[in-house]
């Protein structure tokens, strides 16, 4: 009976992922840069980049189109990084005051839990990622909308941009191989990108992020419900998804790379870039990180927790940030940055 079940599973995998026409994002809603005939020269000639934060936009967009990511070195000032981490650490030390939530793998048999209900040693341990810290923190809002990030993300979408979500974590994520778009789901799946801001120098023994350059172009995985994962509905789950991505990247000749960037460096990646977190070789080493996902206001017109309600919006460097409608009293409540 078990063999029959396994055989059926792999028959369905072959039917959905090898036998059907290739699934892809809706081409009519793709960001311009993902079009086959994207004219980067013409775009750059019309797109303004602040002279206060100069970088070669054409070079970055060409690299993005080919590889699915870009890196800005020493983008965020170390003083700002230190202030943010000290603020976050103090927040975790006083976690009983806050209703913001954390995702803690294997803890309390729940997905998200209010940090006030979690012991401090768990909050500061491996496998904990704090959700939406930026909602409470003015400084986090400023960091995730750093001009290097905002100008580039606006160029990728060529549309009004909004912050979708953030995660802050102390240790390497050790996540399996994945892509972001099946899990982080604005109304238009291709309207998604992310940044990782290194809050310290990253050691190769700390479980660094790994990625496959160029993997944003591989054939999409079909969960049996399309390219998006539907909890309780999809035929296939995260484990098989990860195995497929590893196999497909190897088949396409794409090389797995570990990213050991420096404090203040920023990685921005395409929603379809295949990546994950290596295992932590030395549990004494941290990988302090701030991750943010961005989308367009067209794909995300209202906050995900109140989709039928007009959002309360603030703007940082021309990027929209929606107030968390479930935690209005905590919005911008943490203001520890020195003037």
Automatic annotation (TrEMBL):
Its cofactor is Fe(2+). Keywords: Dioxygenase, Oxidoreductase. One of its GO terms (molecular function) is dioxygenase activity. InterPro entries: Phytyl_CoA_dOase-like. This is Ectoine hydroxylase-related dioxygenase (Phytanoyl-CoA dioxygenase family). It comes from Dyadobacter arcticus.
């Amino acid at each position: 009976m078990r063999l029959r079940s396994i055989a059926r599973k792999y028959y369905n995998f072959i039917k959905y992922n090898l036998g059907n026409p290739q699934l892809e994002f809706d081409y009519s809603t793709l960001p311009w840069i993902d079009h086959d005939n994207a004219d980067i020269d013409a775009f750059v000639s019309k797109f303004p980049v602040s002279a206060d934060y100069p970088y070669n936009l054409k070079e970055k967009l060409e690299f993005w189109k080919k590889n699915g990511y870009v890196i800005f070195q020493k983008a965020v000032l170390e003083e700002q990084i230190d202030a943010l981490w000290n603020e976050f650490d103090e927040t975790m030390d006083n976690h009983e005051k806050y209703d913001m939530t954390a995702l803690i793998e294997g803890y309390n048999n729940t997905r998200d839990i209010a940090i006030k209900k979690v012991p401090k040693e768990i909050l500061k341990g491996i496998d904990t990622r704090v959700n939406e810290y930026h909602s409470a923190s003015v400084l986090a809002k400023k960091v995730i909308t750093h001009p290097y990030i905002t100008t580039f993300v606006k160029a990728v979408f060529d549309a009004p941009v909004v912050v979708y979500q953030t995660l802050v974590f102390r240790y390497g994520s050790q996540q399996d191989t994945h892509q972001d778009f099946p899990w982080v789901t604005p109304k238009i799946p291709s309207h998604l990108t992310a940044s990782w801001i290194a809050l310290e120098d990253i050691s190769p023994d700390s479980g660094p992020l790994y990625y496959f350059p160029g993997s944003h172009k591989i054939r999409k995985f079909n969960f049996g419900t399309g390219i998006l994962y539907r909890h309780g509905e999809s035929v296939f789950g995260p484990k098989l998804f990860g195995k497929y991505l590893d196999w497909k990247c190897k088949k396409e000749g794409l090389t797995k790379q570990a990213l050991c960037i420096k404090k203040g460096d920023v990685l921005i990646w395409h929603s379809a870039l295949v990546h994950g977190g290596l295992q932590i070789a030395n549990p004494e080493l941290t990988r302090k990180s701030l991750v943010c996902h961005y989308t367009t206001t067209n794909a995300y017109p209202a906050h995900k927790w109140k989709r039928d309600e007009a959002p309360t919006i603030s703007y940082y460097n021309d990027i929209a940030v929606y107030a968390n409608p479930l935690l209005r009293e905590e919005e911008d409540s943490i203001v520890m940055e020195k003037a």
